[in-house]
Amino acid sequence: MQWLVPNPFAANAEAKPRAWKLSVAAHMWISYEITHTPQHVFSLVNPTLAELVGLRPALVVVDNVILDLYGSTLVPYITERLLCEALIGVEGSESHKSWEHVDRICGEAVRCGLRRDGVMIGVGGGTVLDCVGLAASLYRRGTRFIRIPTTLVGLVDVSVGIKQAINFKSKKNALGTFFPPYGCINDVTFLRTLPFRHLACGIAEILKMAMVRDAKLFDLVLANAPALLRTHFECPADAAAEILVRAESAMLDELQPNLFEHNLRRLVDFGHTFSPALEAASGYQLPHGEAVALDMLLSTSIAVECGMCRQQVLTQLLEAYLEVGLPIAHPLIEPGLVGSAMQDARAHRGGDLNLVLPMQIGQATFVQNVKTNTIVAAIDRMARVSERAVSRNGCSCR
Ligand SMILES: NC(=O)c1ccc[n+]([C@@H]2O[C@H](COP(=O)([O-])OP(=O)(O)OC[C@H]3O[C@@H](n4cnc5c(N)ncnc54)[C@H](O)[C@@H]3O)[C@@H](O)[C@H]2O)c1
Ligand SMILES: [Zn+2]
Fold this sequence. Notes:
By secondary structure, this protein is α/β, with parallel strands linked by helices. Helices cover 46% and strands 16% of the residues. It is globular, with a radius of gyration of 23 Å. The structure holds nicotinamide-adenine-dinucleotide and zinc ion.
């Protein structure tokens, strides 16, 4: 304790205590595991989830689509192997990543009297996991939270970090918390039912990591993407496993030293500067992964325009999109939206733009200013290169 006036309790003290200061310094130990389970997570003989939960009472929140598709294994598992207090189904979509959904989950926790030592288990894509994670971080000032992602974006991206957010007042991810999960269980068998469009969204997030730090990952995706899409990430099995491991570990390497984002220069923000504005402007009709893909294309075009990387990188990225059916153009990409997205990004990144631009595949850097005429030229270049690629390969853009 530090006295801001002479210590009033000293033997010769004359002053009354009026001002003092207490200092607090503490560390928070964070540790959790992302477990890839070899069997379906809800197979009755799979102990992974039951062992993680133990005897804690659980509130299970499941994407309605997953409840329809996997209810026949999920319901027996949570009834027989967990102490399940309640199970609720929620809509898994960007427009439902809202305060109303978080309110409903917290309401259910209150209704079933979930104990402080209980656990909330989220099963679904990124939108459901974000809502459950936020609810868990708020309920009783924090209740254990287990993630079970069911989309490719969920597996390679959401599962790794410690944050969750909802959209609020037309702003993407405007309200959220940093709250480490109790654990994550990654089960790739969920991908068997994931529609191609959402598999492609996951590939966009994988390409993000490839572009900023792993050129080998980029080659692996390019060589195997059509087969992986066709087989819902089952074949070729070795390539599927290597792609998932490389993408998740690259993400982990970037996030682990900066879990609370005290450093706002983050390579994982590649593709995440213009995409929030695109998603919001589309009324959340444009899926997150597609918005990220478009943002990466524009960012790469800006890098070419600035002379930081060769046009061939832009062409290679485009070719990868054509292989998996990611969009290569969108009418919402215009200088006005791009400019205001940069303003928002600055506000979010403490006053700096920190725009991530590739220098080559596997290597990226940060840029603090981009002139309006560069943006106009980059949008124009992106359109020209896209048109040329489409006339060479046939159109797959949406
Ligand atoms: N918290 C984080 O760190 C983090 C990281 C990345 C992305 N996100 C957020 O995640 C969201 C995107 O998540 P997403 O791409 O998983 O989309 P999503 O949650 O909207 O799911 C996509 C669609 O797939 C359906 N679905 C889910 N699993 C399925 C399955 N196995 N079979 C069939 N259908 C299935 C859903 O019902 C939905 O219709 C965005 O809001 C993004 O901001 C958060
Ligand atoms: Zn993302």
